[in-house]
Design goal:
mainly alpha; Rho termination factor
């Protein structure tokens, strides 16, 4: 992960690109210091979130005698 101080050396355009990559959609109204803070907060939030695993594909054995798929567990 990049050092926090690296963000302070970036231009506004670089910060906006970094913010978009981190998942911050609306950055046009932010100042440089607000962008740095938002990026740091988003990175912390991303670290705390568990990875979301995609659901497993249904197996033919998941269907009941009626032939309808069973509800996902």
């Amino acid at each position: 992960m990049p050092e926090k101080n690296d963000l302070h050396d970036k231009t506004m355009g670089e910060l906006a690109d970094t913010a978009h990559r981190e998942g911050i959609p609306f950055v046009a109204h932010m100042s440089q210091s607000e962008l740095v803070e938002a990026i740091e907060q988003q990175r912390e939030a991303n670290e705390l979130q568990p990875e979301v695993q995609p659901p497993l594909p249904r197996q033919p054995s998941d269907e009941q005698a009626t032939g309808k798929p069973t509800p996902a567990s």
